[in-house]
Amino acid sequence: MDTMLSIVTGNDIRPDDIKEVVLYAGSNILNPIRYPIAHDELEAKFCMPITLMSFVIFTRSAMVVTTGWPQIVDTILVAVGSCGIACAMFGLCIENKGANILLRAALALACIVVMFHPNGNIAMVAAAFVLPATIIGVRRDRVIAPPKSELQPQSIS
């Protein structure tokens, strides 16, 4: 937007001077809502990590009330828990479907402890397990389900 504004103001361009504006963007920008009525959480664009973070301030209040080390510790705990929840929801850690579901459920439960347990020491111990498990889970997901090599063409409708 800033670049477009500087081009327009720097060259004295008027609306009548513009014939066409071509915009290139990914499908998530061009078609953010594909389903008028959502039938599941993926169609609804529901984001569990952000929803949980909206409630975590009641347990990790130092994150918003206190400055200094307590704020840093609570912020790190929430970040680790949120990343772990995202990995548990969307990651693919093991090719065996049943074992994958159990592993991701255990990770999600540990993340809930990290974010919502009132005892900070217990939350830190859980975070010590969640952080490496999340890193390993993301690395495994990239091996089992690698991203597509290039952008896929998308038509605007």
Notable characteristics:
157 residues, mainly alpha, 8 helices
Describe this structure in words.
The chain contains eight helices and no strands. The protein is mostly helical and 157 residues long. Helix 7 runs antiparallel to helix 8 (120-144). The longest helix is centred in the C-terminal third of the chain and has 25 residues, at 120-144. It is extended and about 65 Å long.
Could you give the topology of this structure?
Layout: H1 2-10, H2 27-30, H3 41-44, H4 48-56, H5 62-65, H6 69-90, H7 97-116, H8 120-144
Helix pairs in contact: 4-6, 6-7, 6-8, 7-8
Order of helices and strands: HHHHHHHH
Mean pLDDT metric: 82
Percent of residues in beta strands:
under 5%
How many separate helices?
Answer: 8
Structural class: mainly alpha
The largest sheet is: none
- What is the C-alpha radius of gyration, as a whole number of Å? 22 Å
Low-confidence stretches: none
Spatial gap, N to C terminus: 23 Å
In total, how many beta strands?
A: 0
